[in-house]
Amino acid sequence: MTDTIVLPSQGALTESDIDPTLDLHAEIDRLRKERNAVILAHYYQDGEIQDLADFVGDSLDLSRKAAATDADMIVFCGVRFMGEVAKILSPSKLVVIPDAAAGCSLEEACQPEAFKAFRDAHPDHLAVTYINCSAEVKALSDVIVTSSNAETIIRQLPADRPILFAPDRHLGAYMQKKTGRDMTLWPGSCIIHEQFSEKELVKLKVRHPQALVAAHPECPDSILTHADQVGSTRAILDFVLASEASEFIIATEQHIIHQMSKAAPHKTFIPAPGADGGCSCSNCPFMALNTLEKIYLCLKNDAPAITVPEELRLAALKPLERMLEMSKSVPMSGAAVNAA
Ligand code: 13P
Prior knowledge:
This protein is of the alpha/beta class. Helices cover 38% and strands 15% of the residues. The protein has helices spanning 24-34, 47-52, 59-68, 80-89, 105-108, 112-121, 135-139, 150-154, 169-179, 198-207, 221-224, 233-242, 257-263, 292-301, 310-326, and strands at 5-6, 37-42, 55-57, 73-77, 94-96, 126-130, 143-145, 163-166, 183-185, 212-215, 229-230, 247-251, 268-271, 305-306. The protein is globular. The structure holds 1,3-dihydroxyacetonephosphate (13P). 1,3-dihydroxyacetonephosphate binds at residues 58-60, 132, 146-148, 190, 216, 218, 232-233. 1,3-dihydroxyacetonephosphate binds next to helix 3.
């Protein structure tokens, strides 16, 4: 796979160089102004990072924000493919990510060579690809989707064309059910959403009979079938804030609960359980790699920085631009926080 990360140079500042008495919040603030940087964060980031970001959003809103910003530098607090999308859409900006190792199990599950073979084996199909993938896989796709615009986009595709959907088989199956389209699914899944347990969820619902269940479409159908609301992170957030109910079970990465509790402190949010009955399964280990120290360091070091070779960037840009064009009817979230 093409290496799209420039790591800090030798001699660059490291975590052990950081003075433990440094006020990291104040320093990050000072550097962001000095560098004309915008800090974008996904809802799955630690609450402390969400609170210092200029904008917090789901994958679609973050892509739109990255495409439209007039900042010189984007600090993308999420996972690598999100930073890559920002660079593809805003090539003149310096795009840095706090930790180069922040990957994604869906991206890993869909390697470009295998995806190309999948496409070649289905020449009459349109390739609709979830944004959680590499730039190479995007470049081989017809249109990119996120969980908040997938249905809107699929409904605009010519009805006589069968669809290849990759890499998330659960989102694909959910879309197949909703739109009735002929879809062939890539067998990938997210390690977080895959771990929720139907049996434990049912037990939890018995203990909380008033609670509504809000689930991300990356969850298996066995979980979605119990959901009162299925949607992207921001759709779930909008749902719990608008609902008159006061108790919710949240079947997605649990850091989204930070925004829910802030906006509706009188409501109760319970993370959906894994097979052990606990909630440890709903922490994304990749998202968790980002810390305040690493945000400070990437602002100081201009690295890890995303770089996408121009030929690849232009090829990946096409289906991403198609996505933005085809999802104009999907509004920016009313619940987007700290909006810069
Ligand atoms: P959304 O924020 O678009 O819902 O997607 C989050 C995600 O990547 C789930 O793994």
